Amino acid sequence: xxxxxxxxxxxxxxxxxxxxxxxxxxxxxxxxxxxxxxxxxxxxxxxxxxxxxxxxxxxxxxxxxxxxxxxxxxxxxxxxxxxxxxxxxxxxxxxxxxxxxxxxxxxxxxxxxxxxxxxxxxxxxxxxxxxxxxxxxxxxxxxxxxxxxxxxxxxxxxxxxxxxxxxxxxxxxxxxxxxxxxxxxxxxxxxxxxxxxxxxxxxxxxxxxxxxxxxxxxxxxxxxxxxxxxxxxxxxxxxxxxxxxxxxxxxxxxxxxxxxxxxxxxxxxxxxxxxxxxxxxxxxxxxxxxxxxxxxxxxxxxxxxxxxxxxxxxxxxxxxxxxxxxxxxxxx
Length: 332
Fold this sequence. Notes:
The protein is built from twelve helices and eight strands. It is an alpha/beta fold.
């Protein structure tokens, strides 16, 4: 049954994309056909595909025109987090916005949430789409995977924007009981999510309490993320126990990812890197970490934004991405 989400009613908004890739499409909950309040005309630009490779089905929303740009979401969201950015950049790039392993309409395997496996998933996805070399953006836990991809296969990543996270194993771990209460408020979910089993038991049936708190306290203001967006993200976790479990597996796999990241640190990234962050959340933390990992780093801090600049201040982020990725676009 489709959810009765609020929708735009502008004429033409429900027109489907005029082109199709040669992969199965889906109109299930979480596809472009069953999510709330997409930008006007979005369905005329993008379609939801189910793409299978190496035993994993990945849902990817694809559309636009130009060189490929991969957008990788964070926790506990989905491709939908990029909806405003996708609409704003579709005239410059072919946008690929996947649900990574364990998220949304993608397969929810029990294992494989370490950065090396997640990176391979996305390289395989881009192979299936015919994109050998591409630019990308990684946000939140997607920043961990984006760093892994840029480090492991520099021949394939032309430019990369990374934002609103620290990479486990790279910078010294924050203290478990910091003097600054604000640091605890922002990071306590790391250890909670990394626990085994008990977190599912505590959150199951209380998804709105836990995830709603995350959204409200990490945005720049309690309503920084729309109520409709919060309800959608929570519902995709509530209706499938495998989705809830998988959301924690990203953090449980830190055990595997930390040594992987430390091995990658032996060589610096050679690609141009954009560090992006919200002034009201990560601030200059992302830039400071990435300057230890890459030779060519520029930075943008989005004023008035908390942890979710793609949804809180999308116009500012579109402008930053358009400027940063323009040399890549014009060179293709």
